[in-house]
Amino acid sequence: MAELSRRRLLSAGAVVLGGTGLAWGAREVTLDQAPQAAGPPVPTVSEVEPFYGTHQAGIATAPQAHSTFVALDLRPEVDRAALIRLLKVWTEDAARLTEGRAALADTEPDLATEPTRLTVTVGFGPGVFRLANAEHLRPAWLRPLPPFSVDRLEDRWSGGDLLLQVGAEDPVTVAHALRVLLKGSAGVGSVRWTQRGFRRARGTQAPGTTMRNLFGQVDGTVNPSPGTADFADLVWDTGSGQAWMAGGTSVVIRRTHLDLDEWDKVDRPGREQSVGRRLSDGAPLTGDSEHDEPDFAAVGASGFPVIPEFSHIARARSADPRQRIHRRGYNYDEAPAGGQISDSGLIFVCYQADVDAQFVPIQQRLSELDMLNQWTTPIGSAVFAIPPGCAKGGYIGQQLFGS
């Protein structure tokens, strides 16, 4: 009798749903199992990165598996008031999304319930200061980088007035957050370029493990540790140049094409000599583990340096301790053009208090003579000022606009 009742209920349900065109599949329901109302899942603390604070999130934050960088151009008719309104909307929407709550005008609120360590970081290009009649408040380093001999820059990956950097462990979370934020910018800015990057997924490697680029190399070994005095000194602006920037930083984004098709032809010893590190564990050629200090004076049986003087790590190193940066790069992989096997590379992202004093000298040395230049080509370049964070009730950039 119980079996007959179940069959009748399933049959009736199928008829009703089928008549309305909504029957995607039968689901058994018994009278002694009433359906439970399902509410949105509550994000765990580990999935939520704080939005409000002295500094913007997404800089000292442990890198997530996915990050998308979007540069926007401000529309000619936009004024200071419209830009402030946009920044207030972005701040409110980002704060809600990072907590796992739908934005106020979210048309897909069900996609907002899994923040997966979502961070939203906003940056200002030179155009913001022109629009705000605040050229006198623009940091001296906020301008296009000087030309480097290795550059083959394309406009479609360079420049911009505003930056959105959105990162999370899940690509759906990133895509949804970006859609919400870009809808909020309609009428104020238009997308200039979009760069989507990835790292190893969460759980596939031990926490703190250095990422690998698509050459198979560890990428970013020599990085200051967030939370230390060294990190604060190298990354956070003290406001000595512009008071409104205290607690902010700068970001350089360089899209670098990696010629994997030619790299395939280089044997393993040649690859390691070019970098100055072992591919297996990232250790310098004179060391036993990744974070051992390289010995650039060591020579081999042939009398030549163990670490070639034109290797990547030798050229990147400086005797000046201020010439260091915080790297937080991502890989990219696009559809190849005809005849190619791959179109891949690195979205090189670094933060520093002063671009001119820290990043530029390093890049000049690498541009002059770095063995890796045979297989790497910068094709995009942009510099942005990253304003400080804000408190609840404020908005990103408020220190600049003062209202």
Automatic annotation (TrEMBL):
Domain Dyp-type peroxidase C-terminal: 211-390
Region (Disordered): 269-294
Cofactor(s) of this protein: heme b
Biased amino acid composition, Basic and acidic residues: 269-280
Keyword Transcription: no
InterPro entries for this protein: Dimeric_a/b-barrel (IPR011008), Dyp_perox_C (IPR048328), Dyp_perox_N (IPR048327), Dyp_peroxidase (IPR006314), TAT_signal (IPR006311)
Keyword set, alphabetical order: ATP-binding, Heme, Iron, Metal-binding, Nucleotide-binding, Oxidoreductase, Peroxidase, Signal
Highest taxon of the lineage: Bacteria
GO molecular function: ATP binding; peroxidase activity
Domain Dyp-type peroxidase N-terminal: 56-199
Keyword Signal: yes
Family note: Belongs to the DyP-type peroxidase family.
NCBIfam families per record: Dyp_perox_fam
Protein name as annotated: Dyp-type peroxidase
Source organism of the structure: Rhodococcus oryzae
